[in-house]
Amino acid sequence: MSQIRLYNISKIFDASPKEAKAALNMMAEGADSVQVKSQTGYSVGLYDINMTIDSGELHCIMGLSGSGKSTLVRHINRLIDPTTGEIWIDSPMSADGQPINILELSDKPLQKFRQSTVSMVFQHFGLVPHMTVLQNAAYGLRVRGLKKSERHDIARHWLSEVGLEGIEDSYPDELSGGMQQRVGLARALAVDTPIILMDEAFSALDPLIRNQLQDQLLALQAKLQKTIVFITHDIDEAIKVGQRISILNGGRLIQTGTPQDLQDNPVDDYVAQFMQANS
Ligand SMILES: Nc1ncnc2c1ncn2[C@@H]1O[C@H](COP(=O)(O)OP(=O)(O)OP(=O)(O)O)[C@@H](O)[C@H]1O
Ligand SMILES: [Mg+2]
Fold first, then answer.
1. Which CATH number fits domain 56-80+107-121+194-276: 3.40.50.970, 3.40.50.300, 3.10.28.10, 3.40.630.30?
2. Could you read off the pLDDT of 52-70 as tens digits, one per residue?
């Protein structure tokens, strides 16, 4: 069953609808984002993205720097609104079990949507420095209004699930990068949202620790079946963790498939080169 559906999502940054139209027309005629930028001055974040991410899937988004990966995931929790297109998401806040058109949510429901449905793990951990590990892991539950003993019990559980026991009272700057990112993961898991967005979450870690966190993520995923959208620019990481991989180039979605599909049937040289980097 699909959890996230994007229809015809385009994003032209900092342009009025009229200005954006000219940029979109150029893209429709086959221009690339570099040409659009040089002729109109506008940045194409994404162009005409159609994508479905299944419930319980670990879906990797790959592409070179500037290809639109962060722009794409930030649409899923509406940190960015698209210039055109629709986003439908299965959410526990939907009373009738039908997917929600998230672009129609006003401020309050949007806040509720974010709290109930999507959490995020950041590249540079995003921990609050003056809060302990336990308080950081419990942060999202505090925002939700759970009382202290309850949120600390839940946070303790998730800290132990990610292999962090006995350091609940430490502060983030006392921890290694790998440990800080485990706290970030525990914080995302504690709020129990069906969707977790991870934007280069392991990219700042050294290879050995990164490998351990990938293994841990896979073990947790086998148990929890979250819908995880995992951005990376490292094809080895994408192949290891991704059930499917979507490859972006210049704001366009070039190909989606299992690692094997992409390896066996790359649609173009860009995809083939990514896959070759692995062999
Ligand atoms: N807030 C913004 N305002 C203007 N242009 C932006 C903004 N955010 C992103 N862009 C542009 O949109 C394009 C896609 O950027 P994005 O950050 O999504 O790429 P990325 O694939 O995440 O890159 P990286 O691997 O470096 O993180 C780039 O050309 C970028 O300059
Ligand atoms: Mg990015």
1. 3.40.50.300
2. 999 999 999 999 999 999 9
